[in-house]
């Protein structure tokens, strides 16, 4: 019998976004020095490992395609993520990146791929390579595209929104319906653990979110 997995988005779930005060923008880290884990993220990964499910990062990283960093810097950031997870006793079983961008100036990255979320390609690839059952899996992310990708792949979806679901309207607009909405990765992990313990309980009974009702009411 195939097992499920927990798929984690990276930026905004495991590590913090980087605020650029010069341009007033928020972006993915482009250098290992700017790659900082969110509070509790390493501990959450370690707790997730306790469920016995593999923990797999699935992330759009178009920074190389946009010439913001090179593959060596991306590899160094990935290594830092592994090291920091391990420092709390956690383990990331696999990392899958989509490096493409449809508007890249670099021909090898200018691809209309099927792995850039909201497409489910990264999850499908991981399921093939690691022999996973996507219907027994979870996709955890802080973007609408994470929820859409998880949904297309057939996973349970958990939306992380630190600020009382400030993009709930956007979820509704794009018809993205997360199974659960939580505020942190740690909270998501607690919900996954309880769902795994009571897998025979209908999942509707496990909706614990503070703003799911708000969405349902729309
Ligand atoms: Mg994200
Ligand atoms: Zn791709």
Concise structural overview:
The chain is an alpha/beta fold and 218 residues long. The chain contains seven helices and eight strands, in the order βββαβαβαβαβαβαα.
Describe the protein's architecture and organization:
With 218 residues, the protein is of the alpha/beta class. It has a single domain, classed as 3-Layer(aba) Sandwich (Rossmann fold). 32% of the residues lie in helices and 15% in strands. It has helices spanning 41-49, 71-87, 121-130, 144-153, 168-173, 185-197, 212-216; strands at 6-8, 18-20, 25-27, 55-60, 94-98, 138-141, 156-160, 180-182. It has a six-stranded parallel beta sheet with strand order 5-4-1-6-7-8, with helices on both faces. The protein has a two-stranded antiparallel ribbon with strand order 2-3. Helix 5 (168-173) links the parallel strand 7 (156-160) and strand 8 (180-182). The radius of gyration is 17 Å and the shape is globular. The chain starts with 5 loop residues before the first strand and ends with a helix. Bound molecules: magnesium ion and zinc ion (ZN). Magnesium ion is lined by residues 9, 11-13, 141-143. Magnesium ion (MG) binds next to loops.
